[in-house]
Design goal:
heterodimer; A: 80 residues; alpha+beta; Mth169, Chain: A; three-stranded antiparallel sheet; 3 strands; 26% strand; elongated; B: 227 residues; alpha/beta; Rossmann fold; nine-stranded mixed sheet; two-stranded antiparallel ribbon; 22% helix; globular
């Protein structure tokens, strides 16, 4: 089954890319933006039909490789 | 004295490091990332470059490669492990030194000479160095050192900050912080001071006709310290 993981920067970590995107949006006339934070999104097809087990596998992947927990948080979503 | 330089797919300062180590008396071996065992070494170097194309996060893939298990064991048993630039990024991803290296504050790849200041010489790398301010070279896109405030306190309490970005006189200020690193940090030790990660490249400063010789001072001193 397909499991997705979203990796986001923690609140107190500087995100210069997000800032630049915010400025660009501002320049394009999107003046209602307060803040932009850029993150990562993964779709992982796991050879496992039990959603609980599949999520647990991706959870371990996030902890060991996909996210760096010093600066990032992750959230796991069951997509299929 | 024996050293080993690990080559990952995408490393590009491995040969320069090999030349530098040999020039100052090390018997150096190149080790492929897929090997399982390290040759007998007094020093392991993780070189600069773009291992695995900097995919996911710089150094993250290389930190999980086969040889890293041996490198981590070597470091945990007190062996000297030095990571330069991408090597530093690999060390933080492997958890051998604290913190992370974020994208440079102004989103530019920086390639220039800078000055760094050494404050703590009670370690195998800097002991007996005759001066405190060195001119070295940096070339990186992700060198913006970051750690949590708890980590920073621990790092400072244990004297783990190895080198700071500074001006030519050794003054620390924002103008001489090229990438936005916390506290102008350019290099950091593990708690035991046998693992050193730093962004500047001493191996690029070993010949007056190329760029400078402050790196030569570092390597000459290092081999004398290890002997």
């Amino acid at each position: 089954m397909k499991i997705s993981a979203i990796i986001t920067l923690k609140k107190d970590v500087l995100d210069p890319q997000g800032k630049v995107i915010h400025q660009a949006l501002d320049g394009m006339g999107f003046n209602s933006v307060n803040e932009v934070r850029q993150g990562k999104y993964f779709e992982i097809e796991v050879k496992e039909d039990d959603p609980k087990k599949a999520k647990a596998i991706v959870d371990e992947m996030c902890q060991k490789l996909l996210a760096n927990l010093v600066i990032e948080n992750y959230k796991i979503i069951e997509t299929q | 004295m024996k050293s080993s330089v690990i080559t990952f797919p995408g490393s590009n300062c491995d040969r320069d490091m090999d030349v530098a180590l040999k020039k100052f008396g090390f018997k150096n071996k190149m080790v492929w990332h897929n090997d399982l065992e390290l040759p007998k070494s007094d020093l392991i170097v993780l070189p600069g470059g773009f291992s695995y194309g900097d995919y996911l996060r710089c150094g993250s893939m290389a930190s999980k490669s086969k040889i890293m298990k041996s490198v981590i064991n070597f470091a945990k048993s007190g062996g000297l492990v030095m990571g330069i630039c991408n090597g530093f990024q690999i060390l933080v991803e492997a958890g051998l030194v604290p913190g992370v290296l974020l994208r440079n504050k102004y989103l530019e790849f920086i390639c220039k000479n800078i000055f760094v200041k050494i404050e703590n010489k009670e370690n195998s790398y800097f002991k007996n160095l005759s001066k405190n301010v060195f001119e070295l070279h940096i070339a990186h896109n992700e060198g913006n050192y970051f750690c949590t405030s708890d980590q920073l306190k621990e790092i400072e309490d244990n004297n783990q900050i190895a080198i700071y970005y500074c001006d030519h006189e050794g003054n620390l200020n924002d103008q001489n912080n090229p990438n936005g690193s916390i506290k102008n940090i350019a290099g950091i030790f593990n708690k035991e001071k046998n693992v050193l990660g730093m962004m500047p490249h001493p191996e690029r400063m070993i010949d007056q006709s190329l760029s400078g010789e402050d790196g030569a001072i570092f390597f000459k001193n290092l081999i004398n310290n290890i002997k």
